[in-house]
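sry for the spam today, last one i promise. C-alpha cells for design, 306 residues
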C-alpha cells in the first residue's frame, strides 16, 4: 500500500511540476522526493511522471492518482483533527482565509473578540482571492474562509454573517449619486469577486467597467478616484473601517444597490464547527459595532454626509 508520505510527494509535485520546488515544500532533499515518487511508481507499476532534463509533466494516470491522493491526505488530516478536536476543540492552530475586500477591514477589529472567546487558539490568516480560498478549504489547506456571495461554493457549508451594501466614491464636487453620465466605473481587476458584484449592484441599469484601468486593491482604487480619474463603488464594510478617511472624496450611500452577502465557509465534515460558529458570531458582532460607530460619526474631510 502506498504510504502517506509518497502520496504527499506526488501531490506536491503535481502542483509544482518542479522537483526542486516540490522538495522545498516537503522539507526534504530533491533526491529524497524523487526516490519517493519512483518507489510509488514501482509499487503501482505505472509511470506517473514524465521526466526530462528541463521539465516535469504528469501522465494522465498520474494526474488522476494525484487527485485521488489529495482526498486520501485530507481524510488522514481530518482523522488527526478529529482526535485533537475531541480533546481540545478550542486549542491549537486554525487557518482562516479571507478575501482582500473584506478581511483587512473586518478581521483586525474582530481579533480581540475572537481571542476573548478562544484564548488558546492560534489564528493564522491568509488573504487570497475567492476561488483560491474555496479550493484551500475544500482540500484542507485552510480550515475556513471569509468570502462574499454570490459565488459557487460547492459542497462547503456557508454561515451567513451580514449583507454588505455600497457607497458611491467620487471626486470632490460630485453630486453624490449615480447619474446617466456615470455608466463607467473604476473597479478591481478581474479575479476579485467584488468586480463582478459591483457591476451587478444595479441589475436594471447597465454599468460597465472602465477597461483602461483595473486596480489591484481598494487602496489603489480609492487613490485613483481621489485624483479625479473616475468613480467607483466601495463596500460599506470598507467605508465603516475608514478605508477612505484619508482621502478627499465625495462619499455617499447607495441604498438601492444589491448588496453582497458576506459568509464563512467550511467543510461539513470538520470537527471544529462549534469553534467556527463562535468565530462567525464574533465577526457578526464586530460588523454590527462598526456600523453603529460609523452612523454616530459626523461626516467631514470633504466627504458627503451618509
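last one done:
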Amino acid at each position: 500500500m502506498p504510504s502517506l508520505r509518497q502520496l504527499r510527494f506526488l501531490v506536491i509535485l503535481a502542483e509544482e511540476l518542479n522537483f526542486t520546488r516540490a522538495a522545498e515544500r516537503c522539507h526534504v532533499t530533491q533526491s529524497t522526493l524523487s526516490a519517493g515518487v519512483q518507489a510509488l511508481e514501482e509499487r503501482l507499476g505505472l509511470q506517473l511522471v514524465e521526466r526530462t532534463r528541463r521539465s516535469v509533466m504528469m501522465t494522465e494516470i498520474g494526474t488522476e492518482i494525484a487527485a485521488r491522493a489529495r482526498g486520501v491526505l485530507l481524510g488522514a488530516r481530518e482523522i488527526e483533527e478529529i482526535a485533537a478536536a475531541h480533546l481540545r476543540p478550542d486549542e491549537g492552530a486554525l487557518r482562516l482565509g479571507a478575501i482582500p475586500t473584506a478581511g483587512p477591514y473586518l478581521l483586525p477589529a474582530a481579533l480581540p473578540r475572537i481571542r476573548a472567546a478562544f484564548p488558546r487558539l492560534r489564528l493564522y490568516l491568509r488573504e487570497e482571492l475567492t476561488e483560491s480560498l474555496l479550493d484551500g478549504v475544500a482540500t484542507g489547506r485552510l480550515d475556513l474562509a471569509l468570502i462574499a456571495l454570490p459565488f459557487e461554493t460547492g459542497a462547503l457549508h456557508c454561515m451567513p454573517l451580514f449583507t454588505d451594501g455600497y457607497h458611491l466614491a467620487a471626486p470632490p464636487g460630485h453630486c453624490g449619486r449615480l447619474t446617466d453620465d456615470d455608466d463607467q466605473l473604476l473597479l478591481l481587476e478581474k479575479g476579485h469577486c467584488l468586480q463582478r458584484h459591483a457591476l451587478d449592484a444595479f441589475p436594471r441599469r447597465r454599468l460597465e467597467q472602465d477597461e483602461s484601468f483595473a486596480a489591484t486593491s481598494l487602496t489603489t482604487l480609492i487613490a485613483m478616484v481621489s485624483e479625479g480619474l473616475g468613480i467607483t463603488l466601495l463596500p460599506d464594510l470598507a467605508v465603516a473601517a475608514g478605508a477612505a478617511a484619508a482621502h478627499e472624496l465625495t462619499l455617499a450611500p447607495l441604498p438601492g444597490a444589491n448588496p453582497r452577502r458576506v459568509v464563512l465557509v467550511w467543510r461539513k465534515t470538520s470537527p471544529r464547527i462549534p469553534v467556527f460558529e463562535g468565530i462567525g458570531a464574533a465577526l457578526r458582532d464586530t460588523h454590527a459595532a462598526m456600523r453603529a460607530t460609523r452612523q454616530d460619526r459626523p461626516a467631514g474631510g470633504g466627504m458627503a454626509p451618509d
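The radius of gyration is 23 Å. ok im logging off now
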